[in-house]
């Protein structure tokens, strides 16, 4: 038996065949990603609205909450005869953190739903 027959009978796919198979898998993945992008109903503008509106609302809501909190704390401190910007205790800081996180989650949820509703409405018209 010659060397060619013996090598060909026991050898698996050649490295060229494996490379071609790898390129086919990459090509299939790229095609799937292209199909996903083309079938996505949201345009770039829609995606920006869905991202930017909740981000801006979260920032503004957080700053508004902090302003209201600071105003309330300064009034409380003034009533107690302290300086308006006197440091808060640990429990007040903990309360601020918890309430701020809850308010931020609420604003995020509402603004996210609102931005999706705006985009859906734009798609219908």
Description:
Helix 3 runs antiparallel to helix 4. The chain starts with a helix and ends with a helix. The protein is mainly alpha-helical. The chain is about 85% helix and about 0% strand. It has two domains: about 1-40; about 45-125, no CATH class. The protein has helices at about 5-10, 15-40, 45-80, 90-125. The mean pLDDT is about 85. InterPro entries: DUF4235 (IPR025329). Pfam families: DUF4235. Keywords: Membrane, Transmembrane, Transmembrane helix. This is Membrane associated protein.
Question: Summed up, what is this model?
Answer:
Helices cover 83% and strands 0% of the residues.
Taken together, the total number of domains comes to 2
Helical proportion, percent range: over 70%
Determine the oligomeric state from the structure: single chain
Main pleated-sheet profile: none
Measured by DSSP, the beta-strand proportion falls in: under 5%
Give the averaged pLDDT, no decimals.
84
Helical stretch count? Answer: 4
Order of helix and strand elements from N to C terminus: HHHH
Which regions have little confidence, pLDDT < 50, spanning 5+ residues? none
Roughly how many Å apart are the termini? Answer: 76 Å
Structural class: mainly alpha
Strand runs, count: 0
How would you sum up the global shape?
Answer: elongated
Q: From the alpha-carbon coordinates, what is the Rg to the nearest angstrom?
A: 30 Å
Pfam family, one: DUF4235
Transmembrane segments: 90-110
Keywords: Membrane, Transmembrane, Transmembrane helix
Protein name: Membrane associated protein
